[in-house]
Amino acid sequence: xxxxxxxxxxxxxxxxxxxxxxxxxxxxxxxxxxxxxxxxxxxxxxxxxxxxxxxxxxxxxxxxxxxxxxxxxxxxxxxxxxxxxxxxxxxxxxxxxxxxxxxxxxxxxxxxxxxxxxxxxxxxxxxxxxxxxxxxxxxxxxxxxxxxxxxxxxxxxxxxxxxxxxxxxxxxxxxxxxxxxxxxxxxxxxxxxxxxxxxxxxxxxxxxxxxxxxxxxxxxxxxxxxxxxxxxxxxxxxxxxxxxxxxxxxxxxxxxxxx
Length: 259
What we know:
Layout: H1 8-17, E1 25-28, H2 32-42, E2 49-51, E3 56-57, H3 71-76, E4 79-80, H4 83-91, E5 98-101, E6 105-106, E7 112-113, E8 116-118, E9 123-126, H5 133-139, E10 143-146, H6 172-175, E11 183-187, E12 191-195, E13 202-207, H7 213-218, E14 226-232, H8 238-255
Parallel strand pairs: 1-2, 1-5, 5-10, 10-11, 13-14
Antiparallel strand pairs: 3-4, 6-7, 8-9, 11-12, 12-13
Helix pairs in contact: 1-2
């Protein structure tokens, strides 16, 4: 294994941040998506509009929020609207260019489970639930998903489908009348994945530095497909790393623990 001056979690966050553009209007999930979106805002996309589920628009937090109700979001937002207005006017009105989501379980077509592990009636673990993610998954113009790779996370079959990705693959979204693009990137601590144009199955298009194909296969429950030409994810630069680490330092100082 190649030793690097950054962690795999940092590589995942920074690879995700690079996908965002200055003119994006991004609906942000808590956790890793929030870190990626705020690093983008603090580096190459200073004019990005970050929106959180609680109704904060144009928020620019100095530290990572603990939840969608964190006062830091409202204090730094351009404006705050009601949750119904956020979903009906902004999200369902087609004004969100990117929805950035996390997942507890994910299948090869980008469907997400954040509800239960095990049988729904008698789960082994009850998860936080969908929140606004099901609506984001169908109404944002496209979605990005970020999560760490493991066989319990990247599964052949979801225990529960909370948020719709590409369904059973192919044109399933279109057949249901869903006009948005759905999941366009999966960013893990090992690789970047993109849906196949025809089948919509997630395919590895980039491996992070020091990661082998075997390691990706060993941490995924479904048979992994690789693009014809698999790139190497560019390593983090000093500006990206410093920005991310300083964000986490401020967050720990504010909250007493990493977010």
